[in-house]
Amino acid sequence: MAMTKYLPKSVTLQEFSGSLGDLGTFLPLVVALSATIQLDLGTTLFFTGVYNVISGLIFKIPMCVQPMHAIAAVALAAPGLTLPEVMSAGFFVSGTMMLLGVTGAMTLFNAIIPGSIVRGIQLAVGLLLAKKVRMLVSGTYKPCLMDRPLNV
Fold first, then answer.
1. Considering Cα of 97, then 103, then 106, then 108, what sign does the dihedral take?
2. How far from 2 is each of 5, 41, 58, 117, CA to CA, in Å?
3. How do residues 14-33 score in pLDDT, each as one tens digit?
4. What does the pLDDT look like over 50-90, one tens digit per residue?
5. How many angstroms separate the most distant Cα atoms in the chain?
6. Which whole-number Å values give the CA distances from 44 to 17, 34, 41, 50, in the listed order?
7. At what angle do helices 115-138 and 69-77 cross, to 10 degrees?
């Protein structure tokens, strides 16, 4: 009961259930990453829960914190990425988002970059992931040169 004092009175059951809506995409991505690049499932789920609770308390509304769906989708669809590479991408994106948020530059980027560009990137990553899933399910996936990591 003590936790409810931090939430505004306007939080409804629909808002609370909506805050869990991303779990339908988050859990399959995390499970797939743990199977393909040996992501530690327990640690990932624990810290995701901690960040969800913290962000709910800070912003006074229950919400999901999962801005890394695109990185996870690319890590699954583009074979050859290692766990350190995926982690580096996550650190870079989260650091960039924090910098843009703290400086207020996110508003500038929202004004400059049209929504159609963002939706196009989302569509491309989604189609890439869907293609990979279709190939894996049908058994037609055959590794090729593009599937191997580049040794530079």
1. negative
2. 6, 30, 15, 44
3. 776 766 667 777 788 888 88
4. 877 787 777 776 665 556 777 887 787 776 788 888 889 88
5. 57
6. 21, 9, 5, 10
7. 40
Q: Which tokens sit at 9? A: 């009175």
Instruction: Compute the residue count for the chain.
Output: 152
Cα–Cα separations (whole angstroms), residue 98 to 6, 83, 109: 24, 22, 13
| pTM, rounded to two decimals | 0.62
How far does Cα 74 stand from its chain's mean position?
10
CA 11/CA 17 separation, integer angstroms: 10
Q: Which two tokens stand for residue 22?
A: 């991303």
Instruction: Give the CA count within 13 Å in the CB-facing half-sphere of 151.
Output: 2
